[in-house]
Write a structure and sequence with these properties.
This protein is mainly alpha-helical. The chain folds into two domains: about 10-65, no CATH class; about 65-108, no CATH class. About 30% of the residues lie in helices and about 5% in strands. Strand 1 and strand 2 (about 75) form a beta hairpin. The model has no long low-confidence stretch (mean pLDDT about 80).
């Protein structure tokens, strides 16, 4: 109520982007409609996971550790572009290497 006794009106501004469902910055799924207007992650666990990964990527880039694919020679930063344990740059190179190993040698 206003000081004069009149009911106070509540104005809501609707923008074009307010009609679209907001998405989680961590995994991209939709946020709940009941989420705060300032929310960018769907839950605390998602926010923590996102920032742990971001910190790991930053540390990997600072360390400058690179690896190369034994099949095609592509180079990547370990822990950023591919997982730390990656040997090949793609499933295609991994499959190509497997076929190369399985090919019969011409000696027999």
């Amino acid at each position: 109520m206003d000081s004069n006794g009149a009911p106070r009106l509540k104005l809501t501004v609707i923008t074009d982007d307010a009609c679209e469902p907001r998405s989680c910055r961590g995994y991209g799924g939709p946020l709940m409609p009941s989420a705060k207007a300032t929310a960018v992650f769907c839950e605390d666990a998602c926010r923590s996971r996102h920032w742990r990964r971001a910190r790991a990527r930053t540390e990997a880039v600072k360390a400058g550790v690179t690896a190369s694919c034994p099949q095609c020679g592509a180079v990547w930063t370990v822990g950023v572009d591919r997982p730390v344990f990656a040997v090949y740059c793609s499933p295609a190179c991994r499959k190509r290497a497997w076929h190369t190993r399985r090919a019969p040698s011409g000696g027999v």
